[in-house]
Protein backbone atom coordinates (compact mmCIF):
# COMPACT_ATOMS: atom_id res chain seq x y z
CA UNK A 1 0.00 0.00 0.00
CA UNK A 2 1.03 3.62 -0.51
CA UNK A 3 1.27 5.60 2.73
CA UNK A 4 1.39 9.38 2.89
CA UNK A 5 2.45 10.81 6.27
CA UNK A 6 1.64 14.46 6.96
CA UNK A 7 4.21 15.54 9.54
CA UNK A 8 3.36 18.71 11.47
CA UNK A 9 5.97 19.46 14.12
CA UNK A 10 8.46 22.34 13.95
CA UNK A 11 11.30 20.08 15.11
CA UNK A 12 12.35 16.95 13.26
CA UNK A 13 14.25 15.64 16.34
CA UNK A 14 11.15 15.84 18.58
CA UNK A 15 9.30 12.82 19.91
CA UNK A 16 6.83 13.31 17.07
CA UNK A 17 9.86 13.02 14.78
CA UNK A 18 10.77 9.76 16.48
CA UNK A 19 7.25 8.44 15.83
CA UNK A 20 7.66 9.48 12.20
CA UNK A 21 10.90 7.46 11.99
CA UNK A 22 9.15 4.47 13.58
CA UNK A 23 6.36 4.67 11.01
CA UNK A 24 8.71 4.97 8.02
CA UNK A 25 10.72 1.97 9.21
CA UNK A 26 7.80 -0.27 10.24
CA UNK A 27 5.76 0.41 7.10
CA UNK A 28 8.71 0.00 4.76
CA UNK A 29 9.70 -3.26 6.49
CA UNK A 30 6.13 -4.49 5.97
CA UNK A 31 6.50 -3.90 2.21
CA UNK A 32 4.60 -0.60 1.97
CA UNK A 33 5.75 2.54 0.16
CA UNK A 34 6.00 5.69 2.28
CA UNK A 35 5.97 9.34 1.24
CA UNK A 36 6.28 12.15 3.81
CA UNK A 37 5.09 15.74 3.60
CA UNK A 38 7.13 17.45 6.33
CA UNK A 39 5.07 20.63 6.42
CA UNK A 40 7.47 22.88 8.37
CA UNK A 41 10.43 21.67 6.34
CA UNK A 42 8.75 22.46 3.01
CA UNK A 43 7.60 25.77 4.49
CA UNK A 44 4.00 24.92 3.64
CA UNK A 45 1.81 28.00 3.46
CA UNK A 46 -1.22 27.25 5.67
CA UNK A 47 -3.15 30.44 4.90
CA UNK A 48 -5.99 29.90 2.43
CA UNK A 49 -6.71 32.85 0.17
CA UNK A 50 -6.23 34.52 -3.18
CA UNK A 51 -2.81 33.01 -3.74
CA UNK A 52 -4.42 29.54 -3.93
CA UNK A 53 -5.51 30.19 -7.52
CA UNK A 54 -3.69 31.59 -10.52
CA UNK A 55 -6.73 32.82 -12.49
CA UNK A 56 -8.24 36.30 -12.44
CA UNK A 57 -11.06 36.59 -9.91
CA UNK A 58 -14.30 37.96 -11.48
CA UNK A 59 -15.18 41.49 -10.25
CA UNK A 60 -12.44 41.18 -7.66
CA UNK A 61 -14.89 39.43 -5.30
CA UNK A 62 -13.07 36.47 -3.82
CA UNK A 63 -15.05 33.59 -2.32
CA UNK A 64 -12.79 30.65 -1.60
CA UNK A 65 -15.07 27.75 -2.55
CA UNK A 66 -16.17 29.39 -5.82
CA UNK A 67 -12.58 30.05 -6.83
CA UNK A 68 -11.42 26.58 -5.74
CA UNK A 69 -14.13 25.05 -7.94
CA UNK A 70 -13.15 27.22 -10.90
CA UNK A 71 -9.50 26.41 -10.37
CA UNK A 72 -10.22 22.66 -10.36
CA UNK A 73 -12.14 23.01 -13.66
CA UNK A 74 -9.53 25.24 -15.31
CA UNK A 75 -6.39 23.71 -13.82
CA UNK A 76 -5.50 26.97 -12.10
CA UNK A 77 -4.86 25.81 -8.53
CA UNK A 78 -1.47 26.90 -7.22
CA UNK A 79 1.37 24.44 -7.76
CA UNK A 80 1.89 23.59 -4.07
CA UNK A 81 -1.77 22.54 -3.71
CA UNK A 82 -1.68 20.41 -6.87
CA UNK A 83 1.47 18.69 -5.64
CA UNK A 84 -0.18 17.71 -2.35
CA UNK A 85 -3.44 16.67 -4.04
CA UNK A 86 -1.45 14.36 -6.31
CA UNK A 87 0.19 12.79 -3.25
CA UNK A 88 -3.26 12.22 -1.72
CA UNK A 89 -4.52 10.63 -4.95
CA UNK A 90 -1.44 8.39 -5.01
CA UNK A 91 -1.98 7.27 -1.41
CA UNK A 92 -4.07 4.40 -0.06
CA UNK A 93 -3.55 5.47 3.55
CA UNK A 94 -2.83 8.85 5.11
CA UNK A 95 -1.31 9.30 8.58
CA UNK A 96 -1.44 12.69 10.31
CA UNK A 97 1.49 12.94 12.78
CA UNK A 98 1.22 15.92 15.14
CA UNK A 99 1.31 17.20 18.72
CA UNK A 100 -2.13 18.09 20.09
CA UNK A 101 -2.24 21.91 20.17
CA UNK A 102 -5.19 23.63 21.74
CA UNK A 103 -7.16 20.37 21.57
CA UNK A 104 -6.66 20.30 17.80
CA UNK A 105 -4.24 20.29 14.88
CA UNK A 106 -1.25 22.66 14.72
CA UNK A 107 -2.26 25.54 12.41
CA UNK A 108 0.08 24.39 9.65
CA UNK A 109 -1.83 21.10 9.40
CA UNK A 110 -5.26 22.72 9.71
CA UNK A 111 -4.15 25.03 6.89
CA UNK A 112 -3.21 21.99 4.81
CA UNK A 113 -6.80 20.76 5.18
CA UNK A 114 -8.17 24.24 4.30
CA UNK A 115 -6.04 24.60 1.17
CA UNK A 116 -5.49 21.07 -0.16
CA UNK A 117 -8.82 19.37 0.61
CA UNK A 118 -10.57 21.74 -1.78
CA UNK A 119 -14.17 21.70 -2.86
CA UNK A 120 -14.42 19.81 -6.15
CA UNK A 121 -11.52 17.60 -5.09
CA UNK A 122 -12.24 16.28 -1.60
CA UNK A 123 -15.90 17.22 -1.26
CA UNK A 124 -18.77 19.05 -2.97
CA UNK A 125 -21.06 18.33 -5.91
CA UNK A 126 -22.48 15.26 -4.18
CA UNK A 127 -19.13 14.15 -2.79
CA UNK A 128 -19.19 13.83 0.98
CA UNK A 129 -18.77 11.15 3.65
CA UNK A 130 -19.17 7.72 1.92
CA UNK A 131 -18.99 9.43 -1.49
CA UNK A 132 -16.24 11.91 -0.54
CA UNK A 133 -13.55 12.68 -3.07
CA UNK A 134 -10.96 10.62 -1.21
CA UNK A 135 -13.13 7.57 -0.63
CA UNK A 136 -11.48 4.18 -1.02
CA UNK A 137 -8.68 5.34 1.27
CA UNK A 138 -7.98 5.09 4.99
CA UNK A 139 -6.59 7.69 7.38
CA UNK A 140 -5.34 7.71 10.96
CA UNK A 141 -4.26 10.29 13.52
CA UNK A 142 -1.00 9.70 15.37
CA UNK A 143 -0.58 12.33 18.05
CA UNK A 144 1.20 13.23 21.25
CA UNK A 145 -0.35 15.13 24.13
CA UNK A 146 0.87 17.20 27.04
CA UNK A 147 -1.88 15.98 29.39
CA UNK A 148 -2.12 12.43 30.77
CA UNK A 149 -4.68 9.88 29.57
CA UNK A 150 -6.98 10.15 32.63
CA UNK A 151 -7.41 13.87 32.01
CA UNK A 152 -8.85 13.01 28.58
CA UNK A 153 -11.71 10.83 29.82
CA UNK A 154 -15.38 11.73 30.26
CA UNK A 155 -14.77 12.64 33.90
CA UNK A 156 -11.32 14.07 33.23
CA UNK A 157 -10.68 17.81 33.28
CA UNK A 158 -10.03 18.00 29.52
CA UNK A 159 -12.99 15.83 28.51
CA UNK A 160 -13.19 12.68 26.47
CA UNK A 161 -10.53 12.43 23.73
CA UNK A 162 -12.90 10.85 21.18
CA UNK A 163 -15.14 13.91 21.40
CA UNK A 164 -12.12 16.22 21.15
CA UNK A 165 -10.84 14.45 18.02
CA UNK A 166 -14.32 14.13 16.45
CA UNK A 167 -13.97 17.34 14.44
CA UNK A 168 -10.84 15.93 12.79
CA UNK A 169 -11.79 12.26 12.45
CA UNK A 170 -15.34 12.90 11.36
CA UNK A 171 -15.49 16.53 10.25
CA UNK A 172 -12.36 16.43 8.10
CA UNK A 173 -11.33 12.84 7.32
CA UNK A 174 -14.64 10.93 7.16
CA UNK A 175 -16.25 13.98 5.50
CA UNK A 176 -13.75 13.69 2.62
CA UNK A 177 -14.45 9.96 2.26
CA UNK A 178 -11.68 8.33 4.31
CA UNK A 179 -12.38 5.29 6.44
CA UNK A 180 -10.84 6.32 9.76
CA UNK A 181 -8.65 4.00 11.82
CA UNK A 182 -8.61 4.36 15.63
CA UNK A 183 -5.89 6.90 16.52
CA UNK A 184 -2.51 6.23 18.10
CA UNK A 185 -1.93 8.50 21.10
CA UNK A 186 1.32 8.96 23.03
CA UNK A 187 -0.06 10.54 26.18
CA UNK A 188 2.00 13.10 28.05
CA UNK A 189 5.01 12.28 25.89
CA UNK A 190 7.36 14.70 27.65
CA UNK A 191 6.53 13.45 31.16
CA UNK A 192 6.53 9.65 31.01
CA UNK A 193 10.30 9.11 31.05
CA UNK A 194 12.46 7.13 28.61
CA UNK A 195 10.79 3.85 29.57
CA UNK A 196 7.31 5.22 28.98
CA UNK A 197 8.37 6.64 25.63
CA UNK A 198 9.94 3.29 24.65
CA UNK A 199 6.57 1.65 25.41
CA UNK A 200 4.90 4.12 23.04
CA UNK A 201 7.48 3.40 20.35
CA UNK A 202 6.90 -0.37 20.70
CA UNK A 203 3.11 0.00 20.76
CA UNK A 204 3.14 2.23 17.67
CA UNK A 205 5.43 -0.18 15.80
CA UNK A 206 3.03 -3.02 16.67
CA UNK A 207 0.00 -1.06 15.48
CA UNK A 208 1.74 -0.25 12.20
CA UNK A 209 2.76 -3.84 11.57
CA UNK A 210 -0.95 -4.76 11.58
CA UNK A 211 -2.20 -1.50 10.15
CA UNK A 212 -4.21 -3.11 7.35
CA UNK A 213 -6.46 -4.91 9.85
CA UNK A 214 -6.55 -2.21 12.56
CA UNK A 215 -10.12 -1.39 13.70
CA UNK A 216 -11.98 1.49 12.11
CA UNK A 217 -13.99 4.09 13.96
CA UNK A 218 -17.59 3.17 13.16
CA UNK A 219 -19.69 5.99 11.78
CA UNK A 220 -23.19 5.58 10.32
CA UNK A 221 -23.29 5.60 6.51
CA UNK A 222 -25.11 8.15 4.34
CA UNK A 223 -27.95 5.69 3.86
CA UNK A 224 -28.60 5.77 7.62
CA UNK A 225 -29.66 9.42 7.40
CA UNK A 226 -32.97 10.88 6.25
CA UNK A 227 -31.97 12.77 3.07
CA UNK A 228 -34.29 15.68 3.90
CA UNK A 229 -33.37 16.39 7.48
CA UNK A 230 -29.88 14.86 7.46
CA UNK A 231 -30.66 13.28 10.81
CA UNK A 232 -30.47 9.57 11.61
CA UNK A 233 -33.52 7.60 10.52
CA UNK A 234 -35.58 6.06 13.33
C1 LIG B 1 0.75 25.80 21.18
C2 LIG B 1 0.66 24.57 22.04
C3 LIG B 1 -0.60 24.11 22.40
C4 LIG B 1 -0.71 22.93 23.15
N1 LIG B 1 -1.97 22.48 23.45
C5 LIG B 1 -2.09 21.31 24.11
C6 LIG B 1 -3.39 20.77 24.38
O1 LIG B 1 -4.42 21.31 23.98
N2 LIG B 1 -3.47 19.60 25.06
C7 LIG B 1 -2.34 18.95 25.50
O2 LIG B 1 -2.49 17.88 26.10
N3 LIG B 1 -1.12 19.44 25.26
C8 LIG B 1 -0.95 20.59 24.58
N4 LIG B 1 0.30 21.06 24.28
C9 LIG B 1 1.46 20.22 24.64
C10 LIG B 1 1.94 19.38 23.45
O3 LIG B 1 0.90 18.54 23.00
C11 LIG B 1 3.15 18.53 23.83
O4 LIG B 1 4.20 19.42 24.16
C12 LIG B 1 3.60 17.63 22.71
O5 LIG B 1 2.58 16.70 22.43
C13 LIG B 1 4.86 16.86 23.09
O6 LIG B 1 5.34 16.21 21.92
P1 LIG B 1 6.75 16.60 21.27
O7 LIG B 1 7.01 15.74 20.11
O8 LIG B 1 6.82 18.07 21.06
O9 LIG B 1 7.69 16.20 22.47
P2 LIG B 1 9.25 16.53 22.75
O10 LIG B 1 9.29 17.67 23.68
O11 LIG B 1 10.00 16.61 21.47
O12 LIG B 1 9.68 15.22 23.39
C14 LIG B 1 9.20 14.77 24.63
C15 LIG B 1 10.29 13.99 25.29
O13 LIG B 1 10.68 12.93 24.42
C16 LIG B 1 12.08 12.88 24.37
N5 LIG B 1 12.49 12.56 23.01
C17 LIG B 1 12.61 13.44 21.99
N6 LIG B 1 13.05 12.79 20.92
C18 LIG B 1 13.17 11.50 21.24
C19 LIG B 1 13.60 10.36 20.54
N7 LIG B 1 14.04 10.48 19.29
N8 LIG B 1 13.58 9.17 21.18
C20 LIG B 1 13.16 9.07 22.44
N9 LIG B 1 12.80 10.15 23.18
C21 LIG B 1 12.81 11.34 22.58
C22 LIG B 1 12.60 14.23 24.75
O14 LIG B 1 13.79 14.07 25.50
C23 LIG B 1 11.52 14.83 25.57
O15 LIG B 1 11.80 14.67 26.95
C24 LIG B 1 0.45 22.24 23.56
C25 LIG B 1 1.71 22.73 23.22
C26 LIG B 1 1.81 23.88 22.45
C27 LIG B 1 3.20 24.38 22.07
What descriptors fit this protein?
single chain, 15% strand, five-stranded parallel β-sheet, alpha/beta, binds flavin-adenine dinucleotide, 5 strands, 234 residues, 6 helices
Q: Please tell me how large the radius of gyration is.
A: 18 Å
Poorly predicted regions? none
Distance between the termini: 38 Å
Q: How much of the polypeptide forms β-strand, as a percent range?
A: 5-15%
The H-and-E topology, N to C, reads as EHEHHEHEHEH
- Rounded mean pLDDT is 97
User: Which molecules are bound in this entry?
Assistant: flavin-adenine dinucleotide
Largest sheet: 5 strands, parallel
Count of DSSP H/I helices: 6
| Number of E strands | 5
Side by side, the strands of the main sheet go 2-1-3-4-5
Shape, please? Answer: globular
Helical percentage: 25-40%
Structural class: alpha/beta
Short description:
With 234 residues, the protein is of the alpha/beta class. Helices cover 34% and strands 15% of the residues.
Report on this model:
- The protein is α/β, with parallel strands linked by helices.
- The chain contains six helices and five strands.
- A five-stranded parallel sheet has the order 2-1-3-4-5, sandwiched between helices.
- The longest helix has 17 residues, at 193-209.
- The chain is globular and about 60 Å long.
- It binds flavin-adenine dinucleotide.
- Flavin-adenine dinucleotide is lined by residues 9, 13-16, 18, 99-103, 144-147, 189-190, 197.
How is this fold's topology laid out?
Blueprint: E1 2-7, H1 15-29, E2 33-38, H2 64-74, H3 79-90, E3 93-99, H4 107-116, E4 138-144, H5 161-174, E5 179-186, H6 193-209
Parallel strand pairs: 1-2, 1-3, 3-4, 4-5
Helix pairs in contact: 1-6
Amino acid sequence: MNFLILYAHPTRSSFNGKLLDVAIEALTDAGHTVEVSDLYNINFNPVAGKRDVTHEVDNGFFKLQIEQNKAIEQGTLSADIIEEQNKLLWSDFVILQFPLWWFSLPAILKGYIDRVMTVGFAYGGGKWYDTGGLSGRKAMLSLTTGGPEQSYTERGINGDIDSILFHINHGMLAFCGFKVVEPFIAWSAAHVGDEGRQEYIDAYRNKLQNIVSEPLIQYPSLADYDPKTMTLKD
